[in-house]
Here is the input.
Amino acid sequence: MAIEKVLGIETEYGVAGGPEQDPILASSIIVNAYAQQGRSRINWDFEGETPDLDARGLPGLTSFAPIVETHLANTVLTNGARFYVDHAHPEYSSPECRTPLEATLYDSAGEEVLRRALLAANASLAREDAISIYKNNSDGKGNSYGTHENYLVSRRVEFSHVIRAMVPHFVSRQIIVGAGKVGAETDDALEHAPTFQLSQRAEFFEEVVGLETTLKRPIINTRDEPHADAERFRRLHVIIGDANLSQVATLVKLGSTALLLAALEDEGVGAFPPPPRSPVRALRQFSLDPTLCRVEVGDDGLARSAWDLQDALWHVASDYAGRTGAFAVADEAEVALILLHWREMLDGVRDDPDSVADRVDWAAKQRILRGYQQRHDLSGTDVRLRAIDLQYHDVRRERSLASRAGLRPLFTPENVRHAVHAPPPTTRAFFRGRCVERFPEHIVAANWDSLVFDLGEGPLQRVPMMDPLRGTAALTENLLETSTSVSELLRALDG
Here is the structure.
């Protein structure tokens, strides 16, 4: 039986400007500005971080695990999220969420966190040192940064089956959840001289399976770090995907993937369409083709387009939900909402992309670009179009073109503002966030699966949280409300 899906998104934001045009310094200023406003000064606990563990067993000789940077700005927020500097980017890692809709809300809360952090940072800087932040995936100079999704998966599922089932999805889903991109940056893509691509990230992927995240990026990442009981759970760390400004696109990105993983756990790999024989080539070629006409030969010898693959996968998910209810993913109404948007977006990008430009980021961006190009009589390679592309992703509402594109919202501004501070009630993130809010002076450090408390005397005390579905509001809210001190809380937990 499929395990309940717990999921979330890690977003590395693009950064420009800042003192000395130093992106690491600018990112640190952003994170510290938010922390210093009293929102959190709690450090991240790196004990137990194992980025070198490979789901295939021993890593290959060419595999290089991501470097864990313990010296950069790093804090934990009252909503259970992590906000820190990753390499040269401010990164918001959402709290663990129980459903795709909840995870979409907390991804939107991350955008609001970045807006507030940017406002606080720039208030302290000289005008010439002002920083800009973008929710995008490349800097236009050949450097790409990630939007990583995470899904709780049963350890019972063979990893080879995860690869076989999910490659068709990851190479094709960009036709509905790609963020769109003017031009190209890598040598392979530049050879095709595209004026527009469906995905910002597709051209940067080089392998089908691997451990890396910044070099030789793989379609299926093998990092085996569940942040939970490793005998029961696996965390599928998905590094292939664009940062979406459309809330509906984020919902469908998360919801479709969660539904397919649940279907794999319950019914096996047999119902899934075969992957292309050359998945990396297919990924890149599909991105280069806004007409959706390009086809790639699958392992069964049949040629399929990205649309064909997504159509087949939608039927896998829809049939699974019809048979089981897909309660491991969400309740009936939310599953129906995911399937409805997925279907409408899929048919829309084939028949009339403008009809789904209120939900599909690349269609919304393409419509803006087309209008600007026609008004100013520009060629498809005019450099001003790249500036329009970048402005689509600006986190400042007054500058963002996405905020003026007519994207359909799923949440009210009040919903998002509440999620900036309050943790989701459905996972262990609730306990983490509420402890950060109530006992910040007693928390030495925190991470996904534990909190470390200092009572002022005696040894530090670590509270493990190895099950993502424990520590919920239903299980801990009363305990937190009735504990008048951290000592009382810890005694109650021991009892």
About this structure: The first strand starts at residue 7 and ends at 12. The mean pLDDT is 93. The chain has two domains: 7-416, 425-494.
